[in-house]
Fold this protein.
Amino acid sequence: MGYSVSIALMYIPDIQRDYHNISQAQQARGVELGKKVKLWTRLKNVVTILMPLILSSLSRIDVISNAMELRGFGKNPKKRTWYMARPLKRNDWLVIGFGVLLLVLSFVITFWDGNRFFNPFV
């Protein structure tokens, strides 16, 4: 689901650029989209932009879905993962120990005299 949202957000600028390009191409062919034209005529002229936009979007969707299918996206979703378990080494245990020691030390200092480390407002 997150990947779908990511792809959708990634292609919003592409769709905007395609709309602008198609709009300029239609205006070069004489299709009026300005405010001088009646509303009904303007709506009919917008359809001449939306149809190529929809077709180009469908083409882009087809390319993306083929690429996802070729990479095995969605095939056996229970087994697909990038996670690899690695055993902890000596340096990992040292960092964890240092973090726990720092946490314990901060609790001792905090509750020993009842104050916090540093409070500029007190």
